[in-house]
Amino acid sequence: MLRTIWKGAISFGLVSVPIKLFPATEQKDVKFRYLHKECQAPIRYQRVCSACGKEVTQEDIVRGYEYESGRFVIINEEDLDKIPDDRTRTIDIIDFVSLEEIDPLYFDKTYYLAPGEAGEKPYSLLRQAMAETGKIAVAKVVIRNKESLAVVRGYQDYLVMETIYYPDEIRNPAQLPGFDRKIELHDNEMKMARELIENLATTFEPEKYTDEYRKKLLEMIHAKIEGEQIAVPEVAAQGKVVDLMDALKASVEMAKKSSDKEKKPARKKRKKASGE
Predict the structure, then answer these.
(1) For the chain, which residues make up each domain, given as ranges?
(2) Confidence band (pLDDT; 50, 70, 90) for 81?
(3) Residue of 38, 64, 162, 52 lying closest to 112 (CA atoms)
């Protein structure tokens, strides 16, 4: 059962939709702890003041904003409470736009929205209306003393909210080094590249993608736990690509073979006759 992390309402014109917020994703990274090499015991990290060297507790810690190098202004809870904001419990819809207009670069974190008490009807109304118009909602929401830009959209039978970055949080790609935008592309190269993409094109089936590295890492960890010998596979050396067209042709041939293999129906074994 998912745990509710926030309760509030979606403000939709004069309509208020009570909702509950749940995390929609989880990290499944394999986590390591750092150990003392000699004792093989976990390393303990302490909070120590950089000035007096004393270890401090959570109660001794306050927020500080560094406005100049080494100079801070203290911000406490009372200061934060003085900031006027009536939207601390509201997902305030500002606009409705098409999903295709938002580049995936803007998306940050996804949350499920479930209807709150007596909110089933307006919740269903908003979800279905957006589905029929093909629009998603752009909204603002305040969670944990932070105002976020977000979008609300339908996902299966539910609504989801995805926090997105503000435009000034997206770095300008023009600052990237070493890219000459005046590259001359030959017709044959473009033709082969398009053919390669078309041969690899398919429908998106997320369940077929798995974290192979995590799987191998966990297998290695369990082998070490059981005291088994770990086999190290040989990695085939990759040849250096010299000619772009040769690489494209080889890639197209590989993609065609792979595609033909997937489309080829499996042979059914002929049943033996009783007399055979």
Answers:
(1) 6-27+83-168, 186-200+247-263
(2) confident
(3) 162
